[in-house]
Specification:
421 residues; alpha/beta; UDP-n-acetylglucosamine1-carboxyvinyl-transferase, Chain; 2 domains; 4-stranded mixed sheet; 24% strand; binds ligand EPZ
Length: 421
């Protein structure tokens, strides 16, 4: 398992090319199963989660080619219905195969996704939404199955205890494109990735309006055709690099990016005293003058994204003042706190809240990556810590960040990947 070793203390400077969005491309690849015609997806990030999804599509019978590292051609002329546990368990996002399989085959057998370190990952809202469309899904021996879905447009609410569901909205959206009649999704997730999925589905010939708002309407169609499509840039990768610039006291530009997708993050950075400017497809940050810690809470878009909470916590660890951080989306998404404390951070945990007191500096240490975004936070902390930080289990990071060590080294970071058997 690879390790990443960082010598902290170098201000990062330069422009970093942002890859395609992981959380957009995964449901978009699943949606390519809705048509038997070829789809070409561009700006595909080179990530292990993308490779897992492509393995799943091949297992289901789709032809999958990679004309180049960042493009994928999928043609699901033939399709079978079983997504087995040994493939699904590798990636929670496999759950978004439910909608396309039910819509295309009227039957499916998809393993229940495992939980993960950030808390239980129920799919009750996925099942509620798809069954409201007539999917007739049941859970049998750890699999979500149906043999006789009879889809029909419906009015569906996806409100859950923690807000809406991103992939649940995606599943219902995908199934509804081929359900006769009108479907209305209330309390739909508003994340940019949901809007991007709807944009892809409309490129296939679907008739979706309202994506990106809590009320989405779908007029079912008989069939969908192929399309070429380019996914949006990854707003969480961009947030991670901007925070790297803030932490190290440098100047970082991220491009391409849709500035509106970063609004909650750039608003908080400005509020904390960082200089942030944007043009049509670029956001630039630098530290000049005093900065101060700020409170924030995560929530569904346009609130502060839970996927950038760990990275922002790392910044608050070395920003003067106290930051009260409330995690409202997942029940257990503070496992990075313990590792940051080992590096000298002052963090007090109180249930879903972390109270972070900014310290003069962190000290490098051997640390363990635990989940994708927690690992990113440890890389960021290592960039500013005195001395060496040695991060193990780097495979967590490779799930969601394309060549993060190379991109950081190009910005001046003293970072090495140690390949281990
Ligand atoms: C997507 O996960 C993202 N993953 C996550 O990013 C992201 O953190 C999350 O949305 C929230 O923004 C992908 O898009 C591949 P949810 P998803 O369903 O759709 C509860 C990353 O680091 N819930 O919106 O699985 C759930 O437990 C990953 O890139 C139910 O109660 O998340 C959570 O508390 C991590 N019942 C909340 O809703 C359900 O049926 C939000 O979950 C579904 C979800």
């Amino acid at each position: 398992m690879d390790r990443i070793v960082i010598e902290g203390g170098t201000p990062l400077r330069g422009e970093v090319k942002i890859s395609g969005s992981k959380n957009s491309v995964l449901p978009v690849l699943a949606a390519a199963l809705l048509t038997e015609e070829p789809c070409v997806i561009r700006r595909v990030p080179d990530l292990s989660d993308v490779r897992f999804m492509l393995d799943l599509l091949r297992h289901l019978g789709a032809e999958v080619e990679r004309p180049d590292t960042h493009s994928v051609r999928v043609c699901a002329r033939r399709l079978t219905e079983t997504a087995p546990y040994d493939l699904v368990r590798k990636m929670r996002a496999s759950v978004c195969l439910l909608g396309p399989l039910v819509a295309r085959l009227r039957r499916c057998r998809v393993s229940m996704p495992g939980g993960c370190v950030i808390g239980p990952r129920p799919i009750d809202l996925h099942l509620k939404g798809l069954n409201a469309l007539g999917a007739r899904l049941a859970v049998e021996e750890g699999y979500v199955v149906t043999h006789d879905a009879a889809l029909e447009g419906a009015v569906i609410s996806l409100a859950g205890r923690h807000g809406s569901t991103v992939l649940g909205t995606g599943n219902v959206l995908m199934a509804a494109t081929l359900a006769p009649g009108r479907t209305t999704i209330e309390h739909a997730a508003c994340e940019p990735e949901v809007e991007d999925l709807a944009r892809f589905l409309n490129a296939l010939g679907a008739r979706i309006t309202g994506a990106g708002t809590p009320l989405i309407t779908v007029e079912g169609v008989e069939r969908l055709h192929g399309a070429e499509f380019e996914v949006i840039p990854d707003r969480i990768e961009a947030a991670t690099f901007l925070i790297a610039g803030a932490l190290t006291g440098g100047e970082i530009a991220v491009q391409p990016i849709v500035p509106a997708h970063l609004l909650p993050v750039t608003a908080l950075l400005r509020d904390a005293g960082f200089w942030v400017t944007e043009d049509s497809d670029r956001v630039t940050l630098r530290r000049e003058g005093a900065t101060a810690a700020r409170d924030f809470a995560t929530g569904p878009f346009p609130a502060f994204p839970t996927d950038a909470q760990a990275q922002m916590m790392a910044l608050m660890c070395v920003t003067p003042g106290t930051s009260v951080i409330t995690e409202r989306v997942f029940s257990d998404r503070f496992m990075h706190a313990a590792e940051l404390q080992r590096m000298g951070a002052q963090i007090e945990m109180e249930g879903a809240t972390a109270i972070v007191k900014g310290v003069e500096g962190l000290s490098g240490a051997p640390v363990m990556a635990s989940d994708l975004r927690a690992s990113a936070a440890l890389v960021l902390a290592g960039l500013v810590a005195r001395g060496q930080t040695d991060i193990r289990r780097v495979y967590h990071i490779d799930r969601g960040y394309e060549r993060i060590d190379e991109k950081l080294r190009a910005l001046g970071a003293r970072i090495e990947r140690i390949r281990e058997a």
